[in-house]
Amino acid sequence: MKPHAHKHSHPRQELSALKNRLRGQSRKITGPRAAILEILRKHPHPLTNREILAALPKDECDLATIYRSMHLLEKMGMVKRFDFGDGAARFELVGEGDDGHHHHLVCMRCSEVVEIEECFPSKVERRIAAANGFKSVTHKLEFFGICPDCQ
Ligand SMILES: [Zn+2]
Ligand SMILES: [Zn+2]
Ligand SMILES: [Zn+2]
Prior knowledge:
The chain has helices spanning 15-24, 31-42, 49-55, 63-75, 122-132, and strands at 47-48, 79-83, 89-93, 103-107, 113-116, 143-145. By secondary structure, it is of the alpha+beta class.
């Protein structure tokens, strides 16, 4: 991944606090899980399992271990899964007490990712819910375009 200026980044979380959350849910803090959390903590954008593997120290764990760990961390609400439409699940740390709802702007040429704070007004979801008799309507949404460097 290339370094880039972040227009927005989520507050960094302390690794000790993350480990406490793992402990709080009485899960063993295995070496691989702690190492994965440390990688995610340092990256302000969602990472694929393969990117996590590439960022880990050599022989820390294999792709299958990362896959299982991400599944568990997602179930625990510690990471949120994002889909950029390329078939690779991406994971980002979620702040405690936060649902992690936000969006990304992705460059279609170089894959630069910008964190986007803007979201639909909640009245749009309320209107969609009311019009269709649904409850608890939410959305997933990512934006795509060409970044300034690639124009
Ligand atoms: Zn994000
Ligand atoms: Zn670009
Ligand atoms: Zn939104």
